[in-house]
Amino acid sequence: MKIRRIAGILLGLYVGLLIGIFIFQRSLLYFPSHSYVTLHEAYANRSFEELPVSTADGLDLKAWYAPANGKPFTFVFFHGNGDCLATASETADPYIAAGYGFLVAEYRGYSGLPGKPTEAGLYADGRAYMYALMARGVKSENIILFGHSLGSGVAVQLAEEFHVGGVILLAPYLSIPEMAQIEYPYLPAKYLARDRFENVKKIGNIHAPVLIVNGSNDQIIPPSQGKQLYDLANEPKEFHSIPGRNHNDAFNDLAPIALTWADRLSAKN
Known about the structure:
This protein is of the alpha/beta class and 269 residues long.
């Protein structure tokens, strides 16, 4: 009887843990900052301007945008789950200096913006930024979608929906269920995930040039997942592993690779 009682307690605790993970999973996936930092406060690139957008479900969001100056493409950057508009804007400097346009997208619920992040919500945010650029005369085929980590899921989704000029994925994952199972191997985590970001199912539907880059020492997302996505992607495609780099420190090494790649696309444009 004592063994049964202990087993019942352990089972109850396990079920309670599953319920808790399911209910609070978005707080384990999204880590939004809750205050808005202005361009002046962030000391961001002087080429930036605030770009307000309204989403299809009625949220007023903001991006930071620097129009292209001499090059045909505009990069649209979707950051990772713990980043924010002010810090993500630092990614833009080498691209703006090279004459490319750059839009730093911000998600609902991040940087003090309204709403709460969800998979469907982030896709709606991405569409709003795309439509805002197109309203300013930037053709979709002159947009390069650039996603880091969580943002790779947004970039892949939009590349399915829009005819874009290219896609860059830095530290991408196969899907959130796959990542959840790695993070919680003792739980049926992949079956509990509500926000899925199924890159592995979508990458083959992209018919734009794809550049996939991983840091070889990424301790958060296994670099093998980026290589698997590369193997599933359509040509033309490139894969680069940056030696010694982790999940968040590959941006400086990525820039010359991405700019060389974009320059080749520009020459064909």
